[in-house]
Amino acid sequence: MAHYLAARVISVEPLKSYVRLTLEAPSIAAEMRPGQFVMVSASPEAFLARPFSIAHVDGDRISIVFQAVGCGTDWLVALRPGNTTKVLGPLGNGFCLGDGDHPVIVAGGRGIAPFYDLVRRISHLSPVLFYGGRTKEQIVEPEYFERFCDRLVITTEDGSAGRQGFLTDPLADYLQKNTPPVIYGCGPHAMLHRVAELADGIRTEFSMEARMACGFGICIGCVIPAGESGYRRVCIDGPIFGAKDIRWKDLT
Question: Does the residue 212 lie in any domain?
């Protein structure tokens, strides 16, 4: 059940090239499942809210991790403790947590956001995380993920942190020797397409990004090509999809 409320700002913290915004939102925190998202009003003047994965849940607080890329997110960065902003959520489906050992998580850049809470909840399954970015500035809080993961593999395209190259290279090596019960993924569509190719029959759950205006299926602005034909709405049919559900060749 989604809730619409005026959430009090607890903190706004820089996180290398990203920002973490923590909000007091008791009803959303109580019902959120890893992989779900919220719509956050970008400013009092903005007509449309912005969608963000819920990263952390701590008591009656939630946090989002995002990149400031325009006027809406710039306004969120300018918020101060004690301010309020309108929030709708939790929205969408969530990850299936499963029960098999060593599930694999694949996160590209800001695609790490939905996995903060997931790794905490499945730490008893000893997850393996492949985390990549263009530079070390896109690799945030590796020490947090090391606490909950059996193994953390970091890659950067420029070699400034971890192994140089794309994260799909060490992932391919790992999957040649291991068959995880599930692969969770979030990041650029091209990266997820490659992960889908590597999965080769392994169950996949990908958090898909799309621009959206409402968050609950009315505007039909967040559709992606899925199924044999037609489209599905990321907001209510997702944001979690199996790789086989997506028509990658039609995804732009």
Answer: no
Residues 6 or more apart whose Cβ sits within 8 Å of residue 85: 6, 7, 9, 23, 40, 41, 76, 79
Q: Label the pairing between strands 84-91 and 37-41.
A: antiparallel
Yes or no: say if 134 and 67 are a contact pair by the CB < 8 Å rule. Answer: no
- CA distances (Å), origin 210, targets 52, 141, 188, 233, 240: 10, 25, 11, 9, 12
Q: Is the residue at 8 inside a domain?
A: yes
Sign (positive or negative) of CA dihedral 239, 243, 244, 249: positive
Shared-domain flag, residues 198 and 138: yes
Reported residue count of the chain is 252
Integer Cα distance of 210 and 106 in angstroms: 18
Helix runs in the chain, H state only: 26-31, 71-77, 115-121, 142-148, 168-177, 189-199, 234-237
Residue 235 covered by a domain: no
**Is position 137 within any domain?**
yes
Peptide bond into 90 cis (omega under 30): yes
Predicted pLDDT at 43: 72
Q: What pTM value is reported for the model? A: 0.95
Cis, bond preceding 239 (omega within 30 deg of 0): yes
Q: Which residue has the tokens 């939790």?
A: 90
Which tens digit of pLDDT belongs to each residue from 115-149? 999 999 999 999 999 999 999 999 999 999 999 99
CA distance 117 to 121: 6
| pLDDT at site 237 | 96
Residue matched to tokens 């998202």: 37
Residue 91, beta-bridge partner list: 37
Q: Which domain holds residue 64?
A: 3-91
